[in-house]
Amino acid sequence: MSLSLRLLAISAAFAFAGTAFAASPATPAASTKPHTAQQQRMIDCNHQATGKKGAERKAFMSSCLKGHASAPAAASTDTAQHAKMKSCNADAKAKALKGAERKAFMSSCLKGGAAAAP
Question: 61 Cβ partners below 8 Å, 6+ apart?
Fold first, then answer.
């Protein structure tokens, strides 16, 4: 056989062997191993921290991982704000406000001030 055919055969063998190794999972036992209590707490806190960023997320994660009661309190504040936003949105829709008028109304409503009727 010529040298170029040998090199081609060797290259093909390495290519097929490389794809076979890449397709097999590195540690199949790792995916079936149950989480430790600390790992599960980290997963739960991480899900609860969705939407938080920066210092707020850092403070929340620290509190949550320590098991302090202040972590769920942040969620109730978000729920109250969400309810207020929903109520103001419904009022703005009922009044058929658009553009700058809607923006001014929503700002006033969310701040808790008197709803400015245009």
Answer: 45, 46, 49
Sign of the alpha-carbon torsion through 65, 60, 70, 72:
negative
> Model confidence over 36-87: pLDDT tens digits?
888 888 888 888 888 888 888 888 888 888 877 444 444 555 677 788 888 8
- Whole-model pTM over 0.85: no
Report the alpha-carbon distance of residue 51 to residue 45 in Å, rounded.
12
Q: Is 52 exposed, middle or buried (0-12, 13-18, 19+ CB in 10 A)?
A: middle
Domains of the chain by residue range: 35-68, 80-112
Return the ∠ at Cα 99 (arms to 96 and 100), rounded to 5°: 110
Tens of pLDDT, residues 15-29: 777 665 655 555 555
d(CA 32, CA 42): 18
Token pair 């010529």: residue: 2
